[in-house]
Structures are given as C-alpha cells and as structure tokens.
Structure prediction request, 246 residues.
Amino acid sequence: MKSSTFTKIAVSAALVLGVSANADITNSLHNLSATGLGTIKASAAESATFNDEICVFCHTPHAANTGFPTVPIWNKATPASGSFTMYGTTVAGNSPDAQPNSPSLACLSCHDGVSGINSVVNAPGSGGYVPGGGFVDFMGQSGAAFTMPAGVTQIGTDLTNDHPVSITYVDTAPRPASLKPTTDNLLGTWSGATTIADVLRNGKVECVSCHDPHLGATQSTTFLKRLGANGAANAGSQLCLSCHDK
Prediction:
C-alpha cells in the first residue's frame, strides 16, 4: 500500500512538472550527489552526510517551501523579492510579468548565481529544517553558500538577454514573434508534451517550457524537452520552430 501511494505521488509530481516518464536524473548533471556526472557535485565525504541523496537538493517530502505553489515539494529558499530584471517589452508590445513565476523561479534558485545551490529548507535526518534555507556541505563549502560559477549555466539576475519567461503565449493576430496560431500545434518528440499547450504554465512560457530538469544525459545534454540524440535536440532550430512560425 505504501509503495503504491508513493508511486501515485511521484506520477502526480511528474504530471505537474510536465516531465518525461522516462526521465533519468541519476545520469545527468542535475544529480549533485557524489554519483553525478558533472564537476559541480558533492564529494563522497559530503554526500555521506545526506546518504548520497539525489532529490534532496530540490525536493523534500516534508516541510516544503509553499512559496512555489506550482512546483511539487520544493526544498529551496525563495530568492529575494524583486531580485530579477525581466526581459522588458518585446517587439510585439507584450511584456513578461514583473518577476519570474514559480516554474521559472525554481530554476533560477540555483542558476541566478546568487542563491546557494547547497541551500535546502529541509535537510535529511532529524533537526535539519531551516525555514529560510540552510546550507549543506558542498563543493568544499561548510555552512556557507556555494553559488553557480560564472559561465553559460549562470543565468544571473539580469534576464534582459535571455528568452522571455513568465510571458503570456499570444496566438491571436498579430501573433507576436510569429507564434503559431494555435496552441494545439503538435510538437513531435518532446519530453512530457504533445502540443504547445502542454509546455505552457497557466498559458505562459516559462523555463520548463523548453527544459526538462529531470532528463538524463543520453536523452538531452542540455535538458531540452525536444529530444534529440547527442545534444541535437535543436538541430535546424527545430525546437524554436515548434512555437515560432518562421
């Protein structure tokens, strides 16, 4: 009974996030335990303090941060209010929300270069609950934040040079940015999605519209939802052309 209940919870979380049933975070750069594939990960000694857990860096079964209503059992602190500079007005005249919504804010709570990757609200074991987020030992940091190093994975807090997020998908004339005229448009081989509507969150484009954080390296090296072998998910700009009618 317990196993069945946990399976139902896991499936429900996958449906909310829109992730693939075949996702393999264990074999990805988002596995931050000692068994992860990347260079940003806990050492074997550090991993031992949280039993080499993988999911703990993002999720907790108890005492989750309710500031992320659309992200299941989120285990990270909320970035400071007003932290981000949004894209601004697009060429078509529409604009993102004033700040990122939780589906994008979840990604930015590691990728903003300010928040601690090793900050968790509820660390494994007894007595690890810190409402504002506490730091687990990670990358040689003990009791201090380890932030995303400079590079392509550090999005930063200035989002003016990135694809707009938390912005409404407009499929009516004059169709800004030549967006497809219907969200029923078929996407093809995408993770957890069949149509454009499936990748939107409350009708808006978010980070998780294009990226599935749970994909394994053999599915997509850059976590792109449009699946393609050896990182070829956007060959010929096919990911972009799934929404933009160019």
Remarks:
- The mean pLDDT is 88.
